Each structure stands twice: as structure tokens, then as C-alpha cells.
Amino acid sequence: METGSFRGFEVRLEDPGIAWITFNQPDRLNGMTSGVKRDLVETLTQAQMDNAVRVIVFTGSGRAFCAGDDLKAYSEGMQADPGLVPPIPPGHDNAIGTYDGLRMISQALNATVRSIDKLTIAALNGVAIQTGFTLALACDFRIAAESARLGSATLRFALLPDEGGQHLLVQHMGLAKTLDFVMRKRIVSAAEAHALGLVHEVVPDDQLAEAAGVLARELAEGPQVAMRLLKRSLYNAAELTFEQACDEIAAKTAVVDHHPDARDGVAAFVEKRQPTFNAWLEEAG
């Protein structure tokens, strides 16, 4: 995958296969534009197809993870700055344009985060609102700094959580808590978010990067084939009947059971040693 600086974010790759995506416009609270979102989709597509990438970490710079869409940048045309993908109109100039813009750009980013099989972590260094909040909810793991604040609060502007946030909130909290959260326009502390089940862990601000790195390395060193198939199976299970979920994981098990990682995992247990996973990735590299 491409590393370096792009529209609104930077990408770096660390061993063993951890891609760090850092939002780098702190003066704008890392607000997003259509161009940033399209470049993120391209970056994630590259990461999905690159054997060198095992885990993806999102984080921000300054006081915010991402405080939502950068409305000033939209009005100034900054979404058309040169990037990984050529500029297109951002839409939203009429009703069907808003529908198309959401489906093809804004929602596409969160759908991509959810659809890739490599594990994702949101390291929430500060404010995560609307677009940033939904992106974090789309990730597999969320670690928040103590000073972080999270919420949708779109009703403060008589707007909707239109990037898939309503679905993700119901998945994470259930219907009753989601109704309270969105209808009362709540923006909560990291501790409150943890109590609601919106984040997995809260750490001191100066320990966020370290905590995210520890988790990323743990995930990156695990058996990648089994973990990626299990991730997909778990998300599928949330939507399937029990019978369908059993059939779905049986098909994936037919792949995993015959993979070298599984053979070495079983042998290591018998031989009382640590297994050696991901030799196929080393060979592919």
C-alpha cells in the first residue's frame, strides 16, 4: 500500500504489518471532505490487498480524532485538492445528489471499514463526532483516551446520522439505549462511552498510542487466515439465523482446518511449544 501524506491523513507501516492512518489536520479538528473519504477508501482497498498489512489503526492528531465533516472545506472547494483519486463533485446540491453522495462516498467509507477482513482499531485521541464517531463505530476495536468525547448529536442541527451510525449504534448498544443516545443529542466522555459499550478500553491520554500498538501487535501476530475468516463470520452471525450461521462457519472451517497455521497450532499444543503462524505471509513477502 502507498505510505506518506495524503488528503487529510498520513499512512505509515510498522512491523509486523501494522498500518497507522493518522488524521493530520488538527487546525480543522481533522474534519473530513469527500476527497478525504475517497482517498481513505482507496487506502483501505490497497491495505486489504497487500500481504504486508495485517492490522489497521486509525487515530488523530491534536485535540480531535475527527470532529465530523469539514463544512468550511466543502464550501471552499477543498475536497477537490489533488489526492489518490481524481476529484469529482461532492454532490448534495439537490435531493438525489445528497442520496448519491451518501451512498457512494460517505457511507462507502464506513462500509469499506466493515467489509475488509483485516482487523481495525480506532485509537480515539480526542473528539469523535458524527463522521468520526461513525468511522470509529465501524472499526472492530475502539480504545479511547480519557479526554476523548464521543457522540452523534446530529439532531442539534436537525440532521440525521446518515452515514450508517444509527445501525452501528443499535448493534453496539441495543435499541433502547440508542434511542436515548441520539434523541437526547448526547456527547459523552470516554468513561461514559465505555459504560455504554461503545469503546473497549479507556487509557490515560499519554498511553493511547502505546495501548493501541500493544493491541495491534497482538492481533498482527495471531493466525491471520483464521482471524480474518472469524471476523467475517462474526459479523455475518449478527444478521443470520442460527442454522445459516452454522452452515456459514462450517464452510470457513473447511478452509481453516487444512491451513498450515492450524496444522502447526495443533502440533505445537501436542509438543508444548509456541506455534509458528503466518509462514505463508513471510513467503508471500
Tally of individual helices: 12
Provide the residue-averaged pLDDT: 93
What order do the SSEs take from the amino end to the carboxyl end, as H and E? EEEHEEHHEEHEEHHEHEHHHHH
Question: What would you report as the Rg, rounded to the nearest angstrom?
Answer: 20 Å
Name some characteristics of this structure:
285 residues; alpha/beta; 2-enoyl-CoA Hydratase, Chain A, domain 1; Lyase 2-enoyl-coa Hydratase, Chain  A, domain 2; four-stranded mixed beta sheet; 12 helices; 11 strands; 48% helix; 16% strand
3D architecture notes:
The protein is an alpha/beta fold. The protein has two domains: 4-220, 2-enoyl-CoA Hydratase, Chain A, domain 1; 224-284, Lyase 2-enoyl-coa Hydratase, Chain  A, domain 2. Helices cover 48% and strands 16% of the residues. The protein is built from twelve helices and eleven strands. It has helices at residues 34-49, 71-76, 95-115, 131-138, 165-173, 175-183, 190-196, 208-220, 224-237, 242-256, 260-271, 279-284, and strands spanning 4-6, 9-14, 18-23, 55-60, 64-66, 119-124, 127-129, 141-145, 149-151, 187-189, 201-203. The strands form two sheets. A seven-stranded mixed sheet has the order 1-2-3-4-6-8-11, sandwiched between helices. Strands 5-7-9-10 form a four-stranded mixed sheet. Helix 3 (95-115) packs parallel to helix 4, helix 5 (165-173) packs across helix 6 (175-183) and helix 9 runs antiparallel to helix 10 (242-256). The protein is globular. The two termini are 13 Å apart.
